[in-house]
Amino acid sequence: MKFRRFHPLYSLHIVRKGLALCLLPMLRALLHFDWASLVLALQQDALILLLLLAFSFAAWQLSGWRLEGNLLTIQLGILFHLRQQVRIPELASAVVTRPFFFRLMGASRLTVYTQRSLPGSITLFLPRRDAEALARALMPDELENPVFAPVGADRLSMLVLGFNVTLTGLMAVYSARKTLYELDPFLTQTAWQGLLQAEALVNRVLPAGLAWLVTLAFLFYVFSLGYNFLCRANLRVARGDTILVARYGLLRLTERRVRLSAVTSCQVRVTPAARLLRRYPVYLAAGHDQGRESPLFLCRKGDWFSLRRLMPGLYLPPSRYESVRGRSLPSFFWFPAGGGALCLLLLILSRTLWPAYTFLFLFGLFFFGCLGLQAAEGYRREGVGRIGSSLTLCYTRRLTRYEVCVFTDLTRTVFRQNPFSKQKGRGTFTLKLPAARYRIRSVSARIARELPL
Amino acid sequence: MVIRLSSAGIRLAGFWLFLGGALLGGVFFWFSPFMGILAWVLAFLFFLYCLLCYLPGLEILIDETELCIRSGFVFPCIKRIPLRALCGVVRYSSPLSRAMGCQSLLLYAGGGLACLLPALSMADADAITCLLQGGQP
Q1: Hey, which of A16, A370, A420, B96 has its CA 20 to 30 A from A255?
Q2: Which of B54, B68, B79 has the most A C-beta neighbours within 10 Å, making it the best mutation to test the interface with A?
Q3: Residues of A in contact with B82 (CB under 8 A)
């Protein structure tokens, strides 16, 4: 195949990376804060933009890709050429994404992930037909019949489950940043004006601030829910002899092609929503593709056969790997116990000092109670071991239990102990895969030493 | 096959640790002399731990199927890497390490750097490289 250029959107991608340069003249204008400096800064910004456009145009002209036999070659750069070559059998997956803006421009973003060689992923901006043709050439398939297509409640629960991890993280970060932003001036004033004034200020501002915070959080949640619904709806998964194809999205269309021989691990996430709905999202990782963007299956509780139809050789962890004797309580319970004790103390104090916040601390106590229950489950169930020919492991983080089956033999392990865990013959076990790592707490030293890899 | 660091290797690693600790501790003098002295004391204690416990106790075990690295005395650590997962070895030496007859090995597995074997003697580095290539040391 002859050398082909990327889509012109590639040059916009380069311009976007250089847009931060435009802030430098504006920063100078801000420091001087007069009309002449602003005009000068705008002129300099225009010049920087022109240079960026010229640079990106030249980069687009000289960059491109070529497919020759089993070799995909990508050439980048203007003066200093970077040529990346990837053998097709070395590829683990190919993901074609078409966001709404890309669809308007007739472009697609193709990301290919390698199995073990570096760099782990390469992103190409291609015209739509080129992207589809290249994805088919890299991962050929002759299947169209969907094996798994959630409908109705299944689809809804799939979406809710998919959002759960992302939204919880984003909302937590957003709330923390917002709270710090609100509190910072008052904390500064505390140092100067004394504790009593700060308390008065906090009492006056905090209720309104909290209300706005909750409102914004819910607004953000609704927007995210809607956006994710448009990105992950209409999931269809089909399986051939060598590859697995998943297509999803309404606003942003995504097609993920995974080479089955390159699948490194299969992860079942038991989240609180999954427990309520009795349907567990299943994520596949292949080579450097961690597959965290969206679950590929949704498995009903106890119906593991449908999962084995898609992934033969899949085993899930047993209910218990080893005896809990000697297992470290602090490593599992320090966070829920510490947070719960703090909330309990504040709850008791709030009954007399801050009655308006009693509900808030009650909510905190409930949250840490849930974390404690999850930690108790982890205390009982966490572990690693072989079932048949598959390596399986189970671990918990926050409110989620992760059950993992590892398919690859490219694993390595690290086992760390501290003086206390050494006395008990236990330690923290980390299993490392090409693009993922799993950490299991308080594993027996004997298992860590003798586990066949 | 079991490999431990030679005395020259321990001295070399100790030298770099001492130098790094002294420079890093020196930065804290910028905050206050007390902080600087405290940082130097901590760095010196860490240096002593490495020199007397960590580096002499570092063991590299290689059998037919896997490479195992045992290190640490107070905080023991065991790393196990199957030989089939290793896909590259980089041998690194500086003028000082060459003068002391030492070399460091960087072992790459699928997904990136798997481990660093510091300040091995030339013979040990040759033996490990040869073993990882499927030969006999």
Answers
A1: A16
A2: B79
A3: 409-412, 453
List of chain B residues with pLDDT < 70? 111, 134-137
Smallest CA-to-CA distance from A132 within A288, A9, A255 is with A255
* Residue of A57, A62, A56 whose CA lies nearest to A4: A62
Rg value, chain B, Cα: 17
B66 to chain A: closest CA residue:
A453
Domains of chain B: 2-132 (2.30.29)
Quick one: what percent of chain B has pLDDT higher than 70? 96
Residue type, A387: I
A314: left (phi > 0), else alpha (psi -120 to 50), else beta?
Answer: beta
Segments forming the whole domain that contains residue A437: 315-453
Structure tokens at B80: 């196990």
Residues A444 and A333 in one domain: yes
Residue A329 sits in the same domain as residue A431: yes
Instruction: Show residues of chain B in contact with A263, CB under 8 Å.
Output: none
Contact of A249 with A229, CB cutoff 8 Å: no
Q: Which residues of A touch B53 (CB under 8 A)?
A: none
In the numeric block, the tokens 């071991």 are attached to A385
Residue B29's nearest CA partner among B20, B37, B19, B17 is B37
Closest-CA distance of chain A to residue B94, Å: 26
Does residue A279 lie in a domain region?
no
Express the helix, strand and coil content of chain B in percent, nearest 5 each: 50, 30, 20
Mean pLDDT by 10 residues, chain A (453 residues): 86 86 84 85 90 91 88 85 85 91 90 83 90 88 62 54 58 59 57 60 62 67 70 79 85 88 89 81 87 80 77 84 86 93 91 78 89 93 86 91 88 90 91 88 89 82
The angle subtended at Cα A272 by Cα A267 and Cα A278, nearest 5°, is 75
Is A202 a member of any domain? yes
Angle between helices B7-27 and B33-49 (to 10 degrees): 160
Q: Do B85 and A412 count as a contact with CB atoms less than 8 A apart?
A: yes
Model pTM score: 0.78
Task: Determine the Cα–Cα distance for residues A108 and A94; give it in Å rounded to an integer.
Answer: 12
Reported as a single tens digit per residue, the pLDDT across A353-366 is 877 777 778 888 99
Residue A102 maps to a domain: no
Residue from A412, A430, A453 to probe the interface with B (highest B Cβ count within 10 Å)? A412
Please check whether residue A211 touches B, CB under 8 A.
no
Number of neighbouring beta carbons within 10 Å of residue A109: 20
Nearest CB neighbour to B78, from listed A415, A435, A453? A415
Contact A92/A287 with Cβ under 8 angstroms? yes
pLDDT of residue A153: 44
Query: What is the count of structural domains for chain A?
Result: 3
Q: Are residues A321 and A439 in the same domain?
A: yes
CA distance A41 to A22: 9
Q: For the purposes of burial, counting CB atoms within 10 Å of the CB of A232, is it exposed (0-12), middle (13-18) or buried (19 or more)? A: buried
Q: Are A54 and A166 part of one and the same domain?
A: no
Contact B111 A288 (CB under 8 A): yes
Residue pair A163/A228 in contact (Cβ under 8 Å)? The answer is yes
Alpha-helical runs (H) found in A353-453: 358-381, 419-424, 445-450
